[in-house]
Amino acid sequence: MANKVTIFGAGSVVFSLGLVKDLCLTKALNGSHVCFMDINEEVLDVIYALGQRYAEDLGADMTFEKTTDQEAALKDADFVINTATVTHNEYFMQRRRNMTAKLGYFYDKTGMPEYHNLQLMLNVAKDMEKLCPDAWILLAGNPVFDGTTLMTRETEIKVCGLCHGHYGYTGVARTLGLDPARVTWQAPGLNHNIWLTDFIYENEDMYPKLDQWIAEESEAYWEKMTREGKAIPTQMSRAAIHQYKMYGLMPIGDTPRRGGWWYHTGLEARKYWYDPNGGKDTPAGRDAVLAGKAKKYEQMKAAAYDEKIRPIDLFGDQMTSEQHIPIMNGLVNNVEGQFQVNVPNCGALPGIPDDVAVEVPAIVNKKGIQPLRVPPLPKKIMLECVYPDWLNMERTLEAVLAGDKSMMLFGVLESKETKSYEHGLETLDALFNIEPNEPMQYVENINAHFSWPKNWS
Question: In total, how many domains does the chain have?
Fold first, then answer.
């Protein structure tokens, strides 16, 4: 069946590559028209050429176009996959980290909300109301929790936020010597704040096996990984196990990365709680990630333009683990499946309002995306983890919608690394006025949207 699939922010070339591969391999979606949209013409050209060549390699019936025009990209789309995260542009992110480090913050822990990203998401959804009102937006760009909630409240567009953090359960299973494919699991909550409520293998609860591993093997595991120079997976780090002990359920995926401020006070803390090198969420760790992306990008350019190099030889012919294309297939072709999604709660997770996005399992088929009701999370997790994140999200959305600069300041003042009121003001000013500000081309005049309250002095 022919569908127009717009990949918005296609300059996230590594992620876009996986989407193209999955589309080509999903024969029931052959005939689709893929529109790549980005403001960076160089990377747009790369992913466009690569998409065409990948389709040739896989024998897929696909057509492609590229554009820098948002309205043209969205017009008559059936699906919009939004991968764009303005302030996660690699060059901008690195420059911002360097700036905030000089202001005394470790790894950009300023407490500043991702307001540019949220305004971009809202702009896209509002344009979709005019240009493709029946389309689904599958949100891949962060912040998924805030963005899914914002778009579903402020527009009539159908929104589903997606993240791959839930696959963290496979890391727990493998460490315990279990086949992840045979594990029955459930990990509801909020995006980047999900908890393993069910962990079953061959009809037995595996939490006692996890407890035994922690008591008898965990220290030897961490020492062996360190001795062999291997990175300790965040999912099985001291921080993850410590959070399990604090809250009573295993934190899954990106959840152990957030934790509390005490895991992130500096490089030494990071080395203890996560990895002897500090892990990815450190300046050196992130630089290594960016270097890996740069290397992958060069491979992609070669596969896009060099006749001697074919995409299939570099990137294979197997589906990725991302959910976007299988969900599309379910909605279009009634290929039913269960997925982990971020959608408005509507009673799925007890204790959370209906209009707040939650991450829960859902059945997807021709009827739509239907979240499953899950049992309540423990009260301790709700009070100490879920409700605080919900409150922070509400403050962020109010700041974005109201344009209240004092609410942005409050977020910075709440950071454990902000030393004084004056320090918070200095940091806020620096973040609002970082130059050059080229990634913000996505959202025109956004800084003019924010101002201090009239009675501010």
Answer: 2
